[in-house]
Structure formats: C-alpha cells, structure tokens
C-alpha cells in the first residue's frame, strides 16, 4: 500500500473514533510525554499546535511553560518548509497557512541546534518509529539535519503494523501511544 492509500485508510479509521476514546487517549499520551526523562530535562521543547483530529498538545505546552521551559512551535514559511518560533502564551498565535495557529511575527526564532526534545504529530506510525504525515513533507524537511530527541505521538487504534519509508524520511526516537512507549 502506498502512502496516499495508507492516508485514506487512516483518515477513515480516524473518522469513526469516538470522542470519549480520543479524549482518554490524548490525556494518557500527554501524561506519558510529561513523564519522560527527555521531556523533564529539556530546556527547549518543540511541540506542534494541535488541530482537529490531532492529539491535543495543550497539556504538554502548558506544563512546559509551568516548568519554565522554552516552547518552540512551527510556522510554515513556504511550501514544504517551516521554522520554529518561541511562544510564551497562546496569545502569541494567529491563524496561519491552512488555518493552523502559528506564531505571530513578533515571536523570536528558535534555532534547531538549541532544541532538546520534540513532540511530532502523525496520521499514523509504526513501532519502528516511522511516521505517516499529511504528505506535505514539512516535518521531514525540518528534521532532516537535526539531532534532538523526537517522540511521535499516535492514538493506539491508528497505529500501523508497518509504514513504508523513503530515504528522506526521518525515524523517530520514541513512539508514544496511550498503551505503549517504545524507545528506539
């Protein structure tokens, strides 16, 4: 099955997940991320701003702020490319490309070499750390020349047995679902 066929399959599975399951899974996944030594010891975290159907990252971001960590979030700069900017509150966000909340222009850029830990979204992933995104390549391009620890978050019911991957795809260091946490 190619990536586009897999995306269709996962989106179909996603559409029938109950709100109760999603709420339970998201809470458990966030708690697992917050318990990670890699999160606890990080000074600068990179985390996506969740959209509808994605795992709700607000508890991760809010806990990072409470712990006085720097929070860097993505901003699309051109097709297929993104950069990270520090936010201090949700007031630092505005609607960006594709309706995704992005940092306002007043926010300061965060260089990749300063990031300690990242929470990465997916439509699905496998237990080997390969992720299936939406197909824009934003995360793969950004992560290509980085070496910070990455944790991909996925609801267990959307986990795949195997994700086909290409040479430009970057394998994640940690896979986190509500049921498992796997270090690679």
From TrEMBL:
- The reaction(s) this protein catalyses: (6S)-5-formyl-5,6,7,8-tetrahydrofolate + ATP = (6R)-5,10-methenyltetrahydrofolate + ADP + phosphate
GO: which molecular function terms?
5-formyltetrahydrofolate cyclo-ligase activity
Keyword S-adenosyl-L-methionine among UniProt keywords: no
| Enzyme nomenclature, EC number | 6.3.3.2
Give the matching InterPro entries: FTHF_cligase, FTHF_cligase-like_sf, NagB/RpiA_transferase-like
- Record keywords: Nucleotide-binding included? yes
What this protein needs as a cofactor is:
Mg(2+)
Q: Which UniProt keywords apply?
A: ATP-binding, Ligase, Magnesium, Metal-binding, Nucleotide-binding
Q: Which family does it belong to?
A: Belongs to the 5-formyltetrahydrofolate cyclo-ligase family.
Alphabetized PANTHER family for the sequence: 5-FORMYLTETRAHYDROFOLATE CYCLO-LIGASE, ATPASE INHIBITOR/5-FORMYLTETRAHYDROFOLATE CYCLO-LIGASE
What name does UniProt use for this protein?
5-formyltetrahydrofolate cyclo-ligase
Organism listed in the record: Dorea acetigenes
């Amino acid at each position: 099955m190619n990536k586009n066929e897999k995306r269709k399959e996962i989106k179909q599975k996603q559409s029938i997940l109950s709100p109760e399951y999603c709420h339970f899974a998201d809470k458990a996944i966030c708690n697992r991320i917050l318990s990670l030594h890699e999160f606890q010891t990080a000074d600068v975290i990179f985390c996506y701003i969740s959209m509808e159907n994605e795992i709700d990252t607000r508890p991760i971001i809010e806990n990072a702020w409470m712990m006085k960590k720097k929070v860097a979030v993505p901003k699309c700069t051109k097709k297929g490319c993104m950069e990270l900017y520090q936010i201090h509150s949700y007031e630092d966000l505005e609607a960006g490309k594709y309706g995704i909340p992005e940092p306002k222009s007043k926010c300061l850029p965060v260089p990749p070499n300063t990031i300690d830990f990242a929470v990465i979204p997916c439509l699905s992933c496998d237990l080997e750390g390969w992720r299936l995104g939406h197909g824009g390549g934003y995360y793969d391009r950004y992560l290509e020349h980085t070496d910070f620890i990455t944790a991909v978050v996925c609801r267990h019911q959307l986990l795949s047995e195997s994700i086909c991957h290409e040479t430009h795809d970057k394998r994640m260091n940690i896979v986190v679902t509500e049921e498992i946490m796997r270090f690679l």
